[in-house]
Specification:
Order of helices and strands: EHEHEEEHHHHHEEHEEEEEEEHH
Oligomer: single chain
Number of strands: 14
Number of helices: 10
Largest sheet: 5 strands, antiparallel
Distance between the termini: 61 Å
Bound molecules: flavin-adenine dinucleotide
Strand order of the largest sheet: 4-5-10-6-7
Length: about 280
Amino acid sequence: MYLRPTTIDEAIDALANQGGRILAGGTDFFPAQGEQPIAGAVLDISAIGALKGIAIGPDEIRIGACTTWSEIVAADLPPAFDALKAAARDVGGWQIQNLGTVAGNLCNASPAADGVPPLLALDAAVELAGRAGTRLLPLDQFILGPRRTALGPDEIMVAIRVPRRFEQARSRFVKLGARRYLVISIVMVAAHLALDEHGRVADARVAVGSCSAVACRLRALEAALVGADAGAGLARLILPEHLHPLRPIDDVRATALYRLDAARTLIGRALEACLPETTHA
Ligand SMILES: Cc1cc2nc3c(=O)[nH]c(=O)nc-3n(C[C@H](O)[C@H](O)[C@H](O)COP(=O)(O)OP(=O)(O)OC[C@H]3O[C@@H](n4cnc5c(N)ncnc54)[C@H](O)[C@@H]3O)c2cc1C
């Protein structure tokens, strides 16, 4: 059965009544299906107007679940979103970016999902709607493991919400793959940096993906960066213990050792790229 509701309520009712799988852009859904015929109901949410668009409110920016990567790239967003925009430009090619949605990337819960590190660094939360109402969950509590999320059986992700308090921070996204384009990440890093008037780090956020079952923030590194003189260089402050949350694995794309080494290099590059030209050592 193929259903294409036009409202969130219809979609929730359909999920609660007959279950089924949610389809947004389909760019993860169909490749995962492979040659198998589709069993059970498919709930296509792409016609639900309320899931589209980006709203800038006084305290937060709300990204509708069906916002595509192309729409993220085209949106007028503050500097803290530059890392998310850069990640958007790296998701597949234009065709994928025109169809693939931010929420689909999060709900698919791949350890290599490029959208996750920039959104973790933005302190994003996800808004989930179901029969019992709407709940808000920090992104780091939503993705539980590879292909595992906290989404309930009758729930739909309706939006991603980002607080505006750090929106003027500079941000960068750096992705390493086996080639430049159309590639699954070996390591990717999102860094956000705010400096005070003396050129010292006032706030730092660093998130790394493809180096653990779920992308994660490096909180010890972030704490070590606060107060540092940016002009003296920041990459030198990255210590091996700051990388302890990372648990890379050996796979067809890279060894764990290579990933760890690459992560350290990429974090340094991302942090330095966040600095204004005048600050460089
Ligand atoms: C050629 C190619 C290249 C790619 N390159 C990259 C890349 O470089 N980086 C990267 O990160 N990804 C990449 N992808 C993966 C994919 O494009 C992205 O993850 C995309 O954002 C998925 O969004 P979608 O709307 O297509 O999700 P769909 O395929 O429609 O759905 C994905 C999963 O999320 C669920 N879902 C979707 N929306 C919701 C919702 N609102 N609420 C609840 N559940 C939902 C679906 O049920 C499904 O399980 C690539 C895919 C292809 C085919």
